[in-house]
Q: What sequence folds into this?
């Protein structure tokens, strides 16, 4: 080891000694105040989170105290605990963990000290997806030992009632096996705050709970606020967080807001909501959830295109005939009439999910795999999208009628509970788009989504052009279709390549065959749920898989003219439940000499 290396390590050891003394001093101050000092949690590697930028000192201690002006013992203890976490070297961003091996692919993905606050925690999304995802992350060792989960909802529950609800949800929906020791450690950090979003007292209790968890669990002031609530409540919740000092992180820590879709119902409302949210949180602090982007197959689009040589040369207008992106559901609206009616399939799915899939499929290679580089390339695609001149001929909306599905008779949309019999809300939408750039000029992208369709499936099909010349006679190729590369997003995640092959026998007959890749067969580890990946990314501050506000606004610019046309022209076409949509959708592709794939 060189003398310079020796001197550098000695300097680091001295700095660590200084940090230890600072932490001890913070603990002494807490004890002197008559409070319980936070026990230092087992620290995750510092590479798992970005070091915060240095901030200017607060003008007064008042900003660190509760808004009612009375600094409680919990608040003072929390400040001491956060100060002990945020050492000078953390703030300067030069902390170095000598125990971390840069070749270890697991360590950088472990979240540091942190907590998650879920608003609307009693909802279906929270019960089926969010709480099981938190447990699965803990079970995989990707959460810190002191991780805390706080629920906020209008229920008269105690902490133990909330813990029981989470326990039941985990038992029913978790992907990984239930382990009692993991559950016990996780449940110790669970708190519940009852109240409405207008209730100042409830938010004061939330502030006190956050301070208490900083001391008892060592969360270091790091919290993500997950808004699992109807969109109309987004402004109220973020304003309450600002009013009660919950949006402002103590020095050296972070606060983030996680917002579920839909983000607005058109461009104007999306911009208004962006303005409200950004008054409280900076754009870098806001994580807009699109759970499709957390799916392994969607992320594999980038890996397939940019890590392999065989696909990129044909990924352009010279070889691709058209692209179909389909998201089909075999269920109706269920009990979501209050949310769904007036929103419809296009706003619910095309504006976010399908346009994001389009952007990932069509984008150029990013300069790096980071949030800014991905945003740059996706925005180029969305800005280049061109709507068809005749929206009547190249867009279709529909509503499902009564029919047979899954062996039982089901009701039509207008017969569902809570739906106006004169409703024009679409339960099926299909649109044709083109991208005006050198790579994709003249290649149509067909997007469709719907409820009560043939089966549940989401896929992206890149359909290639036919061979320019065939030496075989027409009878030999009459059962040969077009080559295609198909990404199966759900279910049965994987990829299929369709191509022609000779049928065994004495005659020359060529028929379509497929070559399949399935995650379940190729890897020993099952694919994590999308919400597992996305919640972990929020805690790590990794925004790669989260749409930014610019993408949201560009998506609304694409969809708004279509929605405006539909509002002014007629009613949705009808289609039988269990079918693949209205006949008008088949006619839309037939005009272009094409047909929909049957997934």
A:
């Amino acid at each position: 080891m060189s003398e310079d290396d020796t001197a550098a390590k000695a300097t680091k050891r001295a700095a660590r000694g200084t940090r230890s003394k600072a932490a001890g001093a913070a603990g002494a101050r807490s004890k002197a105040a008559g409070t319980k000092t936070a026990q230092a949690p087992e620290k995750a590697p510092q590479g798992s989170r970005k070091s915060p930028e240095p901030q200017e000192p607060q003008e007064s201690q008042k900003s660190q105290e509760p808004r009612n002006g009375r600094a409680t013992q919990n608040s003072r203890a929390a400040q001491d605990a956060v100060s002990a976490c945020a050492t000078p070297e953390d703030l300067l961003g030069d902390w170095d963990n000598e125990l971390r091996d840069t070749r270890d692919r697991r360590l950088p993905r472990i979240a540091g000290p942190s907590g998650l606050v879920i608003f609307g925690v009693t909802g279906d999304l929270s019960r089926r997806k969010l709480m099981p995802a938190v447990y699965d992350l803990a079970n995989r060792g990707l959460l810190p030992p002191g991780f805390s989960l706080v629920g906020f909802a209008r229920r008269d529950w105690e902490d133990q009632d909330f813990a029981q609800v989470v326990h039941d949800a985990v038992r029913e929906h978790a992907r990984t096996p239930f382990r009692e020791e993991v559950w016990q450690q996780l449940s110790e950090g669970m708190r519940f705050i009852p109240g409405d979003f207008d209730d100042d007292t409830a938010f004061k209790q939330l502030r006190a709970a956050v301070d208490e968890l900083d001391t008892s669990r060592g969360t270091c002031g790091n919290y993500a606020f997950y808004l699992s609530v109807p969109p109309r409540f987004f402004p109220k919740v973020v304003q309450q967080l600002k009013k009660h000092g919950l949006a402002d992180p103590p020095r050296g820590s972070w606060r983030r807001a996680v917002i579920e879709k839909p983000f607005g119902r058109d461009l104007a409302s999306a911009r208004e909501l962006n303005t409200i949210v950004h008054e409280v949180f900076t754009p870098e602090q806001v994580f807009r959830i699109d759970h499709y982007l957390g799916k392994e197959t969607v992320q594999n689009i980038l890996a397939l295109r940019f890590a392999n040589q065989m696909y990129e040369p044909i990924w352009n207008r010279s070889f691709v005939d058209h692209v179909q992106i389909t998201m089909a559901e075999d269920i109706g609206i269920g009990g979501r009439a209050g949310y769904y009616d007036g929103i419809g399939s296009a706003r619910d799915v095309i504006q976010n999910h399908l346009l994001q899939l389009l952007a990932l499929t069509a984008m150029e290679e990013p300069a790096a795999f980071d949030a800014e580089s991905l945003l740059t390339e996706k925005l180029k695609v969305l800005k280049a999208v061109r709507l068809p001149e005749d929206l009547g001929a190249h867009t279709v909306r529909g509503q499902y009628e009564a029919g047979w599905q899954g062996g039982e008779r089901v009701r039509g949309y207008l017969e569902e509970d809570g739906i106006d019999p004169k409703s024009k809300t679409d339960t099926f939408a299909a649109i044709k788009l083109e991208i005006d750039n050198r790579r994709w000029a003249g290649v149509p992208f067909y997007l469709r989504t719907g409820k009560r369709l043939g089966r549940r499936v989401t896929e992206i099909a890149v359909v290639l052009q036919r061979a320019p010349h065939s030496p075989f006679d027409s009878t030999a190729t009459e059962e040969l279709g077009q080559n295609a590369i198909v990404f199966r997003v759900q279910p049965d995640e994987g990829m299929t390549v369709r191509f022609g092959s000779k049928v065994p026998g004495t005659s020359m007959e060529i028929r379509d065959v497929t070559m399949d890749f399935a995650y379940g067969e190729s890897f020993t580890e099952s694919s994590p749920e999308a919400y597992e990946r996305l919640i972990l990314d929020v805690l790590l501050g990794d925004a790669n898989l989260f749409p930014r506000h610019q993408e949201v606004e560009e998506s609304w610019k694409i969809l708004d003219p279509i929605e405006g046309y539909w509002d002014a022209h007629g009613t949705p076409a009808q289609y039988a439940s269990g079918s693949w949509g209205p006949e008008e959708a088949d006619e839309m592709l037939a005009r272009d000499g094409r047909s929909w794939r049957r997934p």
